[in-house]
Structures are given as structure tokens and as C-alpha cells.
Specification:
It contains 21 helices and 20 strands. With about 550 residues, the chain is an alpha/beta fold. About 55% of the residues are buried.
Length: about 550
């Protein structure tokens, strides 16, 4: 036990859990915490964002790229409220983000006396985008709540957690104990359920896999690849599951489904045809949400095995024959062990059909989305194989990166799950902070990037150098496409007057270049990937993303 303030106990506890980076904005209500951080500035890097919305998204990008919790530190009231959009994205993406905020003095807490930055039921507000929110009343509670947060991240679906500490409690001193780093064995599935799943898989037939976000969260890509190679089972992924198996692998069939009811073309979709034909589907670390599964036309297969860390995600839209509740990496290892030595029933004709389906999907994309495919192929060729790609909400992602950009490694594709604009730039900054030696490429539009364009200053200040590809059609392009296709071209509120992004980048001390053709974009991207600072590439697409060449 050591006597220290709540603020110092908080910082010491974060350090004990291996935290090396915090994103946020300094405030008069968190001065004690920042003074404690001063003594750990060589071990914990504080990255000061320009807006708390972006700070939460930076913490999310850091978490998804590193596999470790991202930490966000804001003031009470407006600061906590500003972070809500970023925390909501992390919640629906199952991303481990710990947000720390403050309140007015403990004696005045929730009394409605008009204190500065006072919020009506701040914990209630935060509870809408967190799995758990807690108020710290005493200094000795601070390390306990930090440890509890990291335990929750490891024991269950790792959605955000909020801790609030009153400004005066941060100063209070008590005897505290700093808990050691949390190391909880990953949850295994019930052995009988594993055996039942192995029996179904070993029986052969038309077996396929759908892999989701949790494969990356668990670091389970090697185990997944080992299993599907043993079974000869082709793999679809969700958008945020891209890279769960390298997309140049013969068993990879890419992302399943469409976006916003915009199918890529009028031809028969070979992905849907193949999914409809499966007899057994193994779902790995996807909640099978309505948006990613039911609304995309994923059928209920005759046999469904559902593996997910969250039992609550089971049997919502689909009924599982076998439910495997546990960590993806651990449970896949269990399945591999259960299948080891078995005489697996293989179907050579089905394996040939899966390979032919992969070729048909590639041809289908080239025929229905030729320019989108060419754009993403060019970006992919310019980047390193382990480059991290970060998306935003926009047509360049929904009809571009999600479908047409091949991802080769786990934790290398980060896209919004909740659908809030402005994710790309700050999440790319967070990913770059997590992986400073890897290339980070943000793919966004002129509308989305302006939600958090101020974070160019953060990138310059802290030496973060993602490449920001802005596909600029001076419009809310996705919504304008809606109006064109569904409302007979009755355009309203979908036009934008965007700034000169190159001059804006220069004003922040960043690099800014323009590209008016695919060839110019590739040259600019190749140069940006070796630049010493963040680069904004303003890609002019006046006729829309689908017509850029």
C-alpha cells in the first residue's frame, strides 16, 4: 500500500496495465490527472486531439490496430458529451476503449446547482455507448476500477467502459494498492459443444465459413486459416472481418453482402448463389447482426455453428445447431485439436466449385464495378502488404474498399460499424500511433473528412503520418447516389462546397497534393508513403467515384 492521490493512483494503475498512449484534451477538471501524467511522460504518450469526438475515434483506431485497449481522457460535461459519437462507434464495433472523465466536486455531484460543465446524469449519458460506467467516490477506488475495466475487456465482448472521477476527489490522498497487470486466460468453449461442432464439420458436405471482427480482436487469423485449410472450407467475411484470412488465399471469397441496398450490378451475384448452396456454415466471431447478415440476404443454412465471445449474440436472427461461446483464437484451437487425426470427408467437386466461385466473384466485380476495382487494385499495388487501411462512411468505401480492396493481414482493415461520418482521419491517426512502423492509408470522402479535418494538426504535432486519400466529388456522394437511383435525380441538400484541401493541409503544416486521374493518384500515393509527415491527396472525382479513372 502506498499513500497517493486518486489522480496518481489512476495513472499508476493505467501504467501497470501496460498503457503507453492516451488520447484526449486537457481540461481544468482534469488538471490533477495531467500533473500525474507529467511524471510518466517518458512511458505514457499523451496525444492531444482538437476535438473529443476525434479523440475517442483515435483511441478506437489504436485499439483495433494494436489489439490493446485504447484510452480516451476528456473533461466533464461538454468534453464527455463530445466523445459520445466516437464511443458509440467503438461500442458497435466491439472495440475496447476506456474513457476517463471528471465531474464537479463530489459534494455537488448531481445536485443541479449550475456548476461549470455540470451534466444531468452524465453516467446515464455514457451508459448508452458503454458496457459499464462507474463513478469513483474515493481515491482507493480508482485502481480497483481500472483493473475491473481491463478484466471486463478480457472476459467479455470488449465494448467501451467509462470511469468518472470528480475534480476534488482527484486531489484526495489515501493508502492505495496498485493492482498488477490483468492476465486472464481466454475463454474456451464447452468441450461437448466443441465435439458436436467437430462432428458436423468432419462429416463434410458443403461447408463454408463467415468470419467477423472478433477474429482480429482475438488475433485468431492463423488458427482460422489452419482450420479452413484442413476442411477445404471457403471463407466469406464481414466488412470489419476483412483480412481474417488473407484475401489472396485460394479459400477467400471476400466480403459477403452489399451496402445500403446498392448491389454492385444487375448480374447474378456469385457470392449469394454460393452462400445459398451451403449445407453447413461456421460463423466465427460475428454477432450475425441484421445489418451485416440478415439484410444482406445471408440464408439460414441447414446446419449453423456459431462461435462468438458473447452468448447474447446467439440465436437472434439465426438458430444455431451448436453454439460455441468463447474467445475465437482459443475455440478455433479447440476445433483444430478436435479434428486432428480424424478422417475428414472431403468433396473434390465442391472444392473445385469453391475455386471457380472465387474466380467468378473476381470477374463479377470487374464487370459490375470496373473503375472501383481498378482504383482499389492500384492503391493495393502501391502499398506494403501489411499496410493498415482505414475507411470512413462514403461511396469510396461502400462501393470501393469494402468490396474491391484486398487485405492480407489481420488488424489491417478498420471501417466504421455504427456508420458515423468522420471516422477515417482520427482512426487512422490512432492506428498510426499504435503501429508507427507500418503504412496507414485512410480512404475517405470530402464530406466525411471535414468532420475531423482539424486532426491534421494533431498528426503534424505528434509525428503521425497516415496518408489521407480524399475522393472529392463536392457532394454527399452516397446520398446523392440515392437521389439519383431512387428519387429520379431530385437532388436536394447533397451538394457540398468543399475547401481547397491542399491549401488547408499546408496551413496545418501537412503535405497536400491534387490528383485528377488514376495515374496521378498512384504517383501521389507512392510519394506520400515515403513522406515525413501526414499527406492529404485531394482526388478529384467530379463525375463521382464510380466514374473516376
Amino acid at each position: 500500500m502506498t499513500k497517493m492521490s486518486a489522480a496518481r493512483a489512476l495513472v499508476e494503475s493505467l501504467r501497470a496495465q501496460g498503457v503507453d498512449t492516451i488520447f484526449g484534451i486537457i481540461s481544468s477538471h482534469t488538471m490533477e490527472i495531467f500533473d500525474a501524467l507529467y511524471d510518466h511522460r517518458d512511458a505514457i504518450r499523451f496525444i492531444s486531439a482538437r476535438h473529443e469526438h476525434a479523440a475517442a475515434m483515435m483511441a478506437d483506431g489504436y485499439a483495433r490496430a494494436s489489439g490493446n485497449p485504447g484510452i480516451c481522457l476528456t473533461s466533464t460535461g461538454p468534453g464527455a458529451a463530445n466523445a459520445m459519437g466516437g464511443l458509440g462507434e467503438a461500442y458497435f464495433a466491439s472495440s475496447p476503449v476506456l474513457t476517463i472523465t471528471s465531474t464537479p466536486a463530489e459534494a455537488l455531484y448531481e445536485r443541479g446547482l449550475g456548476m461549470m460543465h455540470e451534466t444531468k446524469d452524465q453516467l446515464g449519458m455514457l451508459s448508452t455507448v458503454t458496457q459499464h460506467s462507474v463513478h469513483v467516490h474515493r481515491p482507493e477506488d480508482a485502481p480497483k476500477q481500472v483493473r475491473a475495466a481491463f478484466e471486463r475487456f478480457q472476459r467479455r465482448r470488449p465494448r467501451p467502459i467509462a470511469i468518472e472521477i470528480p475534480a476534488d476527489v482527484q486531489e484526495h490522498v489515501a493508502e492505495v494498492e496498485i493492482p498488477p497487470q490483468v492476465r486472464i486466460p481466454a475463454a474456451a468453449a464447452d468441450e461437448d459443444a466443441v465435439g458436436a461442432a467437430a462432428d458436423i464439420l468432419a462429416a463434410g458436405g458443403r461447408v463454408g465459413v463467415l468470419a467477423g471482427t472478433g477474429v482480429h480482436r482475438s488475433g485468431a487469423a492463423p488458427e482460422l486459416t489452419r482450420l479452413v485449410e484442413r476442411l477445404g472450407a471457403p471463407v466469406f467475411t464481414t466488412a470489419n472481418g476483412k483480412g481474417a484470412i488473407s484475401e489472396d488465399h485460394p479459400l477467400s471469397l471476400g466480403m459477403f453482402g452489399g451496402e445500403y441496398n446498392f448491389p454492385p450490378g444487375g448480374l447474378e451475384d456469385p457470392r449469394q448463389v454460393f452462400a445459398d448452396s451451403l449445407e453447413t456454415l461456421l460463423v466465427v466471431a460475428s454477432s450475425l447482426s441484421h445489418f451485416r447478415a440478415k439484410s444482406q440476404g445471408l440464408p439460414q443454412p441447414p446446419h449453423l455453428i456459431h462461435l462468438d465471445i458473447d452468448p447474447a449474440s446467439m440465436d437472434k436472427w439465426y438458430t444455431a445447431d451448436v453454439a460455441l461461446a468463447g474467445d475465437a483464437k482459443t475455440v478455433l484451437a479447440q476445433l483444430n485439436a478436435a479434428l486432428s487425426g480424424r478422417n475428414l470427408q472431403s468433396d473434390a467437386a465442391f472444392e473445385r466449385e469453391a475455386g471457380e466461385t472465387r474466380r467468378r466473384i473476381i470477374d463479377y466485380k470487374r464487370r459490375t464495378m470496373p473503375n472501383e476495382t481498378n482504383i482499389m487494385t492500384a492503391i493495393r499495388a502501391a502499398a506494403a502488404k501489411d499496410a493498415i487501411f482505414v475507411g470512413d462512411v462514403g461511396v469510396c468505401n461502400h462501393r470501393g474498399a469494402n468490396y474491391c480492396l484486398d487485405i492480407y493481414a489481420q488488424r489491417s482493415y478498420i471501417a466504421p460499424a455504427w456508420g458515423g461520418l468522420g471516422f477515417g482521419l482520427p482512426a487512422a491517426a490512432g492506428a498510426q500511433a499504435a503501429a508507427p512502423d507500418r503504412q496507414v492509408i485512410c480512404i475517405t470522402g470530402d464530406g466525411g473528412v471535414q468532420f475531423n479535418i482539424q486532426e491534421l494538426g494533431t498528426c503534424v504535432q505528434y509525428g503521425l503520418k497516415p496518408v489521407i486519400l480524399v475522393f472529392n466529388d463536392n457532394a454527399w456522394g452516397l446520398l446523392r447516389q440515392y437521389q439519383e437511383n431512387r428519387y429520379d435525380g431530385r437532388y436536394i441538400a447533397s451538394d457540398l462546397q468543399s475547401p481547397d484541401f491542399t491549401r488547408l493541409a499546408a496551413a496545418y503544416g501537412a503535405r497536400g497534393v491534387q490528383a485528377a486521374s488514376l495515374a496521378e493518384m498512384v504517383t501521389a500515393l507512392e510519394e506520400a508513403l515515403t513522406a515525413e509527415t501526414v499527406t492529404v491527396i485531394d482526388v478529384k472525382t467530379p463525375r463521382g467515384f464510380a466514374n473516376f479513372s
